Amino acid sequence: MECVLFAAYFFDGRFFLPLLTQWKLTKFNLLRKPIIFISGISYALYLLHYSVILQLGQFYFPTNQLSQNQLHLFTICYLVTTVLLATLWFELIEKPIRTFV
To answer: 94 with 43: CB under 8 angstroms?
Structure first.
């Protein structure tokens, strides 16, 4: 139970937000670009990840009879598809709207 509470505290954002605001630009250069990339496409990820991609994926590929390895493959494909479509959404829809307005 204590481990679950620690994990919930550690991963719910209260720990990461203060940590990320204290980062210096010279530290963690390897993590800087992925964080900027994910934060750029975060709204598209929010819009697409569950409502569109996962529901369509489960409609066309039901997961209730998949083995453990097939579930892992489905999860990897889901994550890659989500990030790719969110990137396209950001580049083709959000950026032009930002420059137009």
So the answer is: yes
